[in-house]
Design a protein that fits this description.
Length: 540
């Protein structure tokens, strides 16, 4: 074939047809959010009545759009087995020496759950050991545990990664998975600890204690694990103020210990204090749902490969009342991202021309409980993981206005970043680097579950420079978003501007069309932490 004649054909393959590109409208985005964030869905807590209503609604929309079932047993549903743990708020723990102790008041000083799912747990003179950041990272030649046996101990650890000042060490100002609280509990369990306490500070967490207080002072969930699996009897956070007090009882200073933890030579420090008390919990075995539909690709050879879209449809349900409101509606987080995914499903399903690869649309459950729905799907995929070319996650849309730039979590980690750059160039957008690497955003949404099993993944973000909108309004909206995060006040507002969301939708449609039509599978950049997992998966 003449190469000049081939160029228009190639462009046709990677540029979506107008009927697809111009399908989504502001009214369509708002309609799904209105349903999912309504008070009648009671915040869409896992396994709640609101969860079941949300599931029924999303299934009805998938059917309406003509998607094919891609869940279990020929249905749209993948059951996600979970354990619900509700800690008695009257729980009170004592920390100190034989001569001097202080009370830790639940919610005010600490929040906790259990990984052993026992209704009553007694702590009797459990020794506390400070383990720095609680990290074992061989590739960084870092081991906070050294050769110290911490079995049966309560480990106290700092949030985030060590701050050595080296930009190439533990991602510099950024955050690695080692800095996530989920990792801290995982490694403590592997070490045989009785429990683990993560110290909360606003800088190290990236959010105020109230965020943890709201999300942990209610029923907590985990994936139902085999009885032989290791678990911590205590998984807890303590406030900075409370931590300073019990460290002082032990004769230690939090700042001094934090400074010592920045060194590779750090060794665990027995604090000489113990934990005592009883923690009662109500334990429930429950199920929630991932909802999965498929748009079949148009190429006979490539249609058994998939571009996977995810958006978590859950939120926190009914919880602690704030200003008289106890329903955590989760309009932005993440009825909005779910709405965008539903609109994408309708767009691609109703279009006359299909991309070469098939498209999977998964509304995943229990993200707010530790990305449990996506974690379960990644570990139990309804199509082979090696057949999933890429994952694009939509978590919160832009309701402020159009921007001149854009950011996707993970755009610097795989070939998807190059695809994004090409699409952004077409749309006259600048691709930004992570504006807040210290918050570890890459490890805090559902795309990370798929990255861990080797699937190249990105999560849609917004832009920084808003155009055509009053600067005072932009500032007000951003301040508001910070205040409503994980609060009952995350509700639909009449001043939302969907222009930015429509810009995001166009970008994702163009990006999807490109990924779904280029023959080469996406890949991780050389040296990326997930590259080896992907290569192993592809070879099986």
């Amino acid at each position: 074939m003449n190469i000049l004649l081939a160029i228009p054909f190639l462009l046709f393959q990677i540029v979506p047809p107008p009927e697809v590109l111009n399908f989504i409208a502001a009214k369509k985005l708002g309609s799904h959010i209105t349903v999912l964030a309504h008070d009648s869905l009671e915040g869409r807590g896992p396994s709640s009545a609101g969860d079941r209503k949300a599931t029924a609604y999303i299934v009805s929309q998938f059917k309406k759009f003509g998607l094919k079932p891609a869940g279990e047993k020929g249905s749209f549903i993948q059951k996600v087995p979970m354990v619900g743990v509700t800690v008695d708020p009257n729980a009170m723990l004592k920390i100190g020496t034989a001569n001097q102790q202080m009370d830790l008041v639940y919610s005010t000083d600490f929040v906790a759950t259990t990984g052993t799912y026992e209704p009553v747990i007694e702590f009797r003179n459990a020794e506390l050991v400070f383990v720095g950041y609680g990290i074992t990272a061989p590739e960084q030649q870092w081991d906070d545990y050294k050769d110290v046996d911490v079995r049966g101990k309560i480990l106290v650890m700092l949030n985030n990664d060590p701050a050595t000042g080296d930009p190439n060490f533990f991602a510099g100002k950024g955050r690695t998975y080692y800095g996530r609280w989920t990792y801290k509990f995982e490694i403590a369990a592997e070490k045989g600890a009785l429990g683990a306490i993560v110290i909360h500070t606003t800088p190290s967490a990236g959010y105020r204690y109230e965020v943890i207080q709201n999300s942990w002072s209610r029923e907590m969930f985990d994936l139902a694990m085999p009885s032989s699996s290791k678990g911590l009897s205590l998984k807890a956070w303590t406030t900075e103020a409370a931590t300073r007090k019990y460290f002082q009882l032990a004769g230690f200073d939090l700042d001094s210990l934090t400074a010592s933890a920045q060194s590779v030579s750090f060794r665990p420090v027995p604090l000489g204090i113990t934990l005592n008390g009883t923690m009662k919990s109500m334990i429930k075995r429950i199920e929630t749902n991932n909802i999965i539909g498929k748009v079949e690709g148009g190429d006979p050879k490539l249609k058994d490969q998939y571009v996977l879209f995810t958006a978590h449809y859950d939120h926190f349900g009914i919880g602690r009342a704030i200003n008289g409101d106890s329903i955590y509606n989760g309009a932005l987080d993440n009825a909005s991202g779910t709405s965008l995914m539903l609109n994408l499903a309708e767009t691609f399903s109703t279009g006359k021309i299909k991309p070469k690869r098939s498209l999977l649309f998964a509304a995943v459950a229990a993200e707010e409980q530790g990305m449990l729905g996506s974690k379960y799907f990644a570990g139990n995929p309804t199509v082979p993981a090696k057949k999933i070319a890429a994952n694009i996650n939509t978590d919160v849309i832009n309701v402020i206005g159009r921007t001149t730039d854009i950011f996707f979590q993970g755009n610097d980690r795989s070939s998807l970043g190059s695809d994004l750059a090409e699409i952004a160039k077409e749309m006259h957008l600048t691709v930004m680097q992570d504006p807040a690497p210290e918050q570890g955003g890459f490890y805090r949404s559902d795309h990370f579950s798929f990255s861990k099993v080797g699937i190249p993944a990105m999560s849609m973000g917004g832009g920084k420079t808003v155009v055509g909108v009053d600067t005072a309004f932009v500032r007000m909206m951003r301040e508001r978003h910070g205040k409503i995060y994980h609060q009952p006040s995350d509700e639909i507002s009449g001043d939302w501007n969907y222009d930015g969301a429509l810009q995001q939708a166009e970008l994702v449609i163009r990006l999807t069309w490109r990924i779904a039509n280029i023959i080469e599978m996406p890949y991780w950049n050389p040296g990326n932490e997930f590259d080896a997992v992907r290569k192993k998966s592809m070879s099986q």
